[in-house]
Fold this sequence. Notes:
The complex is a heterodimer.
Chain A: H1 2-16, E1 18-21, E2 29-32, E3 37-40, E4 46-53, H2 60-74, E5 77-78, E6 83-86, E7 91-101, E8 104-115, E9 118-127, H3 128-142, E10 146-149
Chain B: H1 2-22, E1 24-34, H2 37-50, E2 54-58, E3 62-68, H3 72-82, E4 85-95, H4 97-121, H5 126-158, E5 159-168, H6 189-194
Parallel strand pairs in B: 1-5
Antiparallel strand pairs in B: 1-4, 2-3, 3-5
Helix pairs in contact in B: 2-3, 4-5
Amino acid sequence: MKNIILLILFSISILSCKKIVLEEPEGFANIEEGKIYKAVSPEGVILKIRIVENSPSKDVEFWGDALSYQLKREGYASSSDGVYFTGAEHGGYYHEWALAYGTDTFKYLTAIIPYEKNIIIAEAAGEYIVFADYRDSIIECLKTVKLEKGI
Amino acid sequence: MKKIIFICSFILFILSNAFSGNNLHYKINTTILVEDPEQAGIEISKWIRENGGYILTLSEMNIIVLFPGNKNNLLREFLESISMESHGFSITAVDNTEEIMTLNSGISAREEVLKRNLEFLDKVDVKGTLALEQEVWTLIEEIEKMKGRLRKLVSESRFGRAEIMLSFYSQQLTTNIQSSFSWINTIDFYQLVSEGF
Lengths: 151, 197
């Protein structure tokens, strides 16, 4: 009997697992897929997408403000105003930052897409000049991100 | 009669202002904060060349350019458009009109004396020739010096000089300010770039 209950719970837990589904950004190689998506360009521009719990349950404006406020407090310099965008199924928000890393200036993009009980978080970073070549494909990719049930 | 005097004064005022404006030499000093100094340097160089100016110095963090004097406002707008922030923008203008007029009259006077001296040259004896020759050389030297100075002032009036310092983000991030929302604390540029694949 215990085994059956455990089996049922295990099945439920598998079904409740969500994986990230997206149209792969152009020019990137996939490193990891599933609950965490990671990709990298030949020049080392990194894209990482993951899921966190939307708790307390709030909308994109709330989390966009919260994230931008916190990063500014930490000293991140905003390189442009935050942008709201329409995603595959839910709206999202991205913000671009510029900061020194070693002797170079890097661009760092943060994006959030509140998705029902979850928030999809995307981070991308790369050398400023190189990043410019991939920026559009990253943003297009973010617009296609959604969650599906699976392992 | 009063009206005529007033109109004449007004015309003279307009003309003097217009003339004066043509001989202003602009100097701009500014430091702009940019995302990428190298790229900003390329963009500034391109703008300067397209607008008839030229580059005197171009290094990673510093650019000195000569730009058409009548485009100082456009240059300012352009610099604002490529920068995130501007730390101090100073513009000074020196009016070269008076010096140009002094030089012009000085050159004319010396040229007149030179002409007369040359006319006398054939009519004097050897001793007089030597004395005149010495004066002629002195006059020529003075005229050339004044013409050189005049050319410099005219050139300065055509071109302003801008010294642009480029700075980029070098801020230190503070990691000890925590957000009330735990997941926001996991958003970290340095962690992202250092965690590898």
